[in-house]
Amino acid sequence: MVLKGTNIEHKLQKIRNKRSDSKQILAEVQQILREDSLKEAKIADQLGSKNNTLNNNFDFDLLETDKIFHIDQIKEICIEYRLRFLNSSYFKGKIPQEAISKIKHLETAHNTELKGFKIMAPSKLFKLEDKDDPLLFAPIGNDYFYLIHKWGHDLHPLRKLFAWPFKNIANLVMVVLLISYLVTLMVPEGLFSKKSTTAEFWIIYFFMFKCIASIVIFYGFALGKNFNPAIWKSKYFNA
């Protein structure tokens, strides 16, 4: 006698059919999906809203402490890496489904509706008004924010170095002086006279400095650029 294999799917269906009919099951599933869809729509509305809520009703016992950050810590990172920390409504990229799911999970766990979302990201990822790695936050209160989700690629390892000249005027002047010196070293000897002298070198250096400084100043004013401490929280392109 050959024993016939057990079809687990059939067994599962048999138990389900004993407890409820298919129409009821279908109606329940549709209701769940409908409620979930409405919840996601509300979250999408909040992410696109310019709501400036400063706190949410979190259950502090359920929060992960390593995801809580003060505004001063966020500001420091934004200045170091030339990032912006703005309302999620200005974000022009697509917020991934995983982030939406985490918001839903938090709202269910904390029995609240989250508002006032903020995103930390490079300027190019925001729709800035005229005058590589986003992080989504929700305000807790008292200038503290809770990190909900991080997506995309990590920042370029040299981004901090590239952003350093734009931290303040002193850093920018130092970089211009260094570039001017390197460019001066590239000028061939005897280009302006048969014999190069120290005085001639410094005259060329001063000329190079004026040229490069003029280009930097023109670029800064023409494109409305500003230093990192002035733009990290600004919604304006030419802040």
Name some characteristics of this structure.
single chain, 239 residues
Beta strands, count: 5
Amino-to-carboxy terminus distance: 84 Å
Shape: elongated
**What level of helicity do the residues show?**
40-55%
Question: How big a fraction of the residues is strand?
Answer: 5-15%
Number of helices: 8
* Order of helix and strand elements from N to C terminus: HHEHEHEEEHHHH
Q: Kindly state the mean pLDDT as a whole number? A: 81
Short structural summary:
The chain is α+β, with helices and mostly antiparallel strands.
What does this structure look like?
- The chain is an alpha+beta fold and 239 residues long.
- The chain has a 5-stranded antiparallel β-sheet.
- The protein is elongated and about 105 Å long.
- It starts with 7 loop residues before the first helix and ends in an 8-residue tail after the last helix.
- The mean pLDDT is 81.
Give the topology:
Layout: H1 8-19, H2 22-47, E1 68-70, H3 71-81, E2 84-87, H4 97-110, E3 118-121, E4 135-141, E5 144-150, H5 159-163, H6 169-185, H7 198-222, H8 228-231
Antiparallel strand pairs: 1-5, 2-3, 3-4, 4-5
Helix pairs in contact: 2-4, 6-7
